[in-house]
DNA sequence: GCTGCGCGATATCTGTGACGTATCGTCGCC
DNA sequence: GGCGACGATACGTCACAGATATCGCGCAGC
């Protein structure tokens, strides 16, 4: 049984006349008779009553036609859905990210993307940078945002672009002696209890800190570890110690804390966005397009990759 | 686009390999490649990624395949549904009937039919005999049960069989002088207020009564009119007068009324079942089969009609 | 680094079957 | 009873689905 049989049966039911139904289908009457006969033979039931007043579906025919209509609707819908999926208008995007990316630039990027592609389901999962990279390589994520470029087995199959730079800044309670200062020197942190990211969650950040403090004994030897920037700020506000985190932490201003720059400047590993080069889906391409328009730190590498999906470029802002 | 394309795409998605998918379809690999290419051309999107590790659906392909699966399911379901409808296992039966038929034999017939065909929807509508005949002729009913055979325009297209005979009986309140009697003579009804069916609702019954009482003045000249047997009994119980109705009225025994036969015997028009001879659907045939098994008054006319649908006979009791 | 192999694409032929034209059988209808 | 309308049948034809043979390419392996 082919779709043709369904189309012919529906046309016959509509026109109640072999000749006119055939004409509406663009074929002659005898082939229509033959195809309907073949359909009835295959179904095993008479589907139409041929009377002198017209052609009418039998009980079996009526039941058949109802389903046939739905089957053809599904076939038409399949083409429509395929087109929408190919243009990245529908689908799913699984995004893993570290907490500080949620300070910036994710709010703007996610908002614009969801506005441009309202029918794409966003699966958002907060996780550490190494966990995001691992999930991405395992195929459990489509995009990962973390600090530092992913390394290790499988990372060579990823495309990674920087999407945000940060220097190290300090955060203290308003009642702390550092409050009111514009800058604090690394040397002045000796003797202070430091609040920093945990080494297992954000190794790249901790490595950058170690490099800044240099070899030998340092306040980093016994820090208070925090899973994300909110915790760093919260602990600092509780006078647990001096929080150290990325510049974008300033955006989380609170009345009870004070931010100050660190001297000498300590450049933290950039925020990076990664995805599997081999799995550049239309939805992903549309997402990257939004990222490129919103993050000036993005280099030309992304343009190069996006060029492989020209149809996706400049569609996110104005989907058809 | 034909169903073949959907079947081929689904097989390819399942086997992730052109050669094995083709083998599972019983065709060679080149035709499968050609059909998939034709499908992709028609849809306008690439549906499969051919990699060295296998063939995988693209985002568009995944969306397409989901709908394709449903489309093929609908096509298969269409055949199944057609078969079920042809066997009278599904569908609808619109039955019009007069109130006294609901005393008997409808309870037994409907119960057995619904047990044999649980998926058939029964539309039951109580109406007068002429209204049922008119609705049947107009195509608003599939079966009508009334008293007397339908007459008038369109009635010649109906098949009508008797399904129950009745004599006239009387019903009075337990406190009425007739209470306790086995029989009452027509002559004794003179002077009594009679409670009978209304002439416009049941003309055949009223005509039979008129014939029984003979020409000239009679108690029928100014009766109390009732729409159904329940009302006749109820009014009689209220001592409004003497109710006259069909024998089967006895089945509605109540402690406060008394039934007695009428002398001389007055034969009422039979209960008749009618349907359009041209529209003998499988569901209707199955219903008639139950009627034949439950109403011994049914004549051979029904056998003759049912012979035109041999498949329906003896299916009602044991549907496959 | 070249060869071998697996796999999908391409080229070409073939046969089935869908379709067209012509015609028949049948049923209403004037 | 002739006529017209309509669906079924008969038969020729051509398009296209499918078969066979072969090519191109990418990966693996000695």
Helical residues, percent of chain A:
25-40%
The largest interface is: A-B, 43 and 43 residues
C-alpha termini separation of chain A: 36 Å
- Average pLDDT, all residues of chain A: 89
SSE pattern of chain A, N- to C-terminal: HHHEEHEHEHEEEEEHEHEEEHH
Any guess at the CATH architecture of the largest domain in chain A? 3-Layer(aba) Sandwich
Shape of chain A: rod-shaped
**Count, helices of chain A:** 10
CATH class of the largest domain in chain A: Alpha Beta
Oligomer: homodimer
CATH fold topology of the largest domain in chain A = D-Maltodextrin-Binding Protein, domain 2
SS elements, strand count of chain A: 13
The secondary-structure class of chain A comes to alpha/beta
Sequence of strands across the biggest β-sheet of chain A? 8-12-7-11-9-10
- Strand fraction of chain A: 15-25%
| Cα-based radius of gyration of chain A, to the nearest Å | 31 Å
Looking at this structure, what is the CATH superfamily of the largest domain in chain A? Answer: Periplasmic binding protein-like II
Largest sheet of chain A: 6 strands, mixed
Layout of secondary structure:
Two copies of one chain form a homodimer.
Chain A (H helix, E strand, L loop, with lengths): L2 H13 L2 H8 L3 H15 L4 E4 L2 E4 L1 H28 L4 E7 L8 H11 L3 E7 L2 H10 L4 E5 L10 E7 L3 E6 L9 E3 L8 E4 L5 H11 L10 E3 L2 H9 L4 E5 L10 E7 L7 E6 L5 H13 L5 H7 L14
Parallel strand pairs in A: 3-4, 3-5, 8-12, 9-10, 9-11
Antiparallel strand pairs in A: 1-2, 5-13, 6-13, 7-11, 7-12
The structure holds a DNA duplex (30 and 30 nucleotides).
């Amino acid at each position: 049984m082919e779709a043709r049989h369904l189309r012919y049966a529906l046309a016959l039911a509509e026109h109640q006349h072999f000749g006119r139904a055939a004409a509406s289908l663009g074929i002659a009457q005898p082939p229509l008779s033959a195809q309907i006969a073949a359909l009835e033979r295959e179904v095993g039931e008479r589907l139409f009553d041929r009377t002198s007043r017209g052609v009418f579906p039998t009980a079996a025919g009526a039941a058949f036609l109802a389903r046939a209509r739905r089957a053809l609707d599904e076939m038409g819908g399949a083409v429509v859905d395929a087109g929408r999926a190919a243009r990245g208008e529908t689908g799913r995007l699984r995004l893993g990210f570290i907490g500080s990316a949620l300070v910036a630039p994710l709010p703007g990027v996610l908002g614009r993307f969801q506005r441009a592609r309202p029918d794409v389901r966003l699966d958002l999962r907060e996780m550490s940078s190494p966990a995001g990279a691992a999930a991405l390589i395992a195929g459990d994520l489509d995009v990962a945002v973390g600090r530092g470029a992913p390394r290790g087995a499988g990372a060579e199959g990823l495309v990674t672009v920087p999407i945000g730079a940060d220097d190290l800044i300090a955060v203290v309670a308003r009642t702390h002696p550092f409050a009111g200062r514009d800058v604090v020197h690394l040397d002045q942190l000796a003797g202070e209890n430091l609040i920093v990211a945990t080494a297992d969650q954000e190794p790249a950040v901790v490595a950058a800190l170690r490099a800044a403090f240099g070899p030998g004994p340092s306040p980093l030897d016994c820090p208070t570890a925090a899973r994300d920037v909110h915790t760093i700020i919260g602990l600092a506000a509780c006078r647990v110690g001096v929080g150290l985190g990325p510049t974008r932490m300033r955006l989380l201003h609170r009345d009870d804390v004070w931010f100050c720059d660190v001297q000498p400047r300590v450049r933290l590993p950039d925020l990076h966005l990664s995805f599997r080069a081999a799995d550049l889906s239309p939805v992903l391409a549309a997402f990257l397009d939004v990222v490129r328009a919103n993050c000036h730190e993005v280099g030309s590498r992304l343009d190069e990759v996006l060029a492989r999906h020209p149809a996706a470029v400049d569609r996110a802002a104005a989907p058809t």
